[in-house]
Specification:
Elements (H helix, E strand, L loop, with lengths): L1 H13 L1 E14 L2 E13 L4 E9 L2 H14 L2 E2 L11 E5 L2 E7 L6 E2 L2 H10 L4 E6 L4 H13 L3
Helix pairs in contact: 3-4
């Protein structure tokens, strides 16, 4: 029992979790409305590994736990060259278009909310980005993740 707790505590410290979006969703049933929550979450170790998870449950805490578990199972590795990405990338996924550009040392993360969460969780220190197309945070997060997978 103590071994499982120790592993869980070490895993909790290993990854940085960031909740991007919490949505309240409801389903019409014969007995009334059935409320649930969907949570979009990014996990990363700030050393090049990052994952995104979407969890849905009747309460927010369970949805966060599900999203975190999914994100940790589906991590991708991002190559980081001198604190930034290797080259420019423009990706279109659905309605979302994401432009990521490497930035010189000391520029910091110049990115919007959804993109910023993903690249900071990955451990990228200097990057310039532009979100084109949609304002949907979930679409932008998934498009950013897809853009980061192109560096293999």
């Amino acid at each position: 029992m103590a071994n499982n707790e120790a592993r869980f505590m070490q895993e909790a410290r290993e990854f940085d979790e960031r909740v991007i979006q919490v949505n309240r969703v409801s389903k019409k049933t014969k007995g009334g409305n059935r409320m649930a929550f969907s949570v979009l979450l990014v996990v990363g170790d700030k050393k090049g590994r990052v994952g995104v998870g979407l969890g849905k449950a009747r309460d927010v805490a369970s949805a966060i736990r599900k999203a975190s578990a999914y994100a940790k199972k589906h991590l991708i590795t991002v190559p980081i060259v001198r604190g930034t990405i290797p080259h420019d990338v423009l990706i279109k996924r659905g309605a979302a278009k994401i432009l990521l550009k490497p930035a010189p040392e000391g520029s910091g993360v110049i990115a919007g909310g959804a993109v910023r969460s993903v690249v900071e969780a990955a451990g990228i220190l200097n990057i310039s980005s532009k979100v084109l197309g949609t304002k949907n945070q979930a679409s932008n997060v998934y498009a950013t993740l897809e853009a980061l997978t192109t560096f293999k």
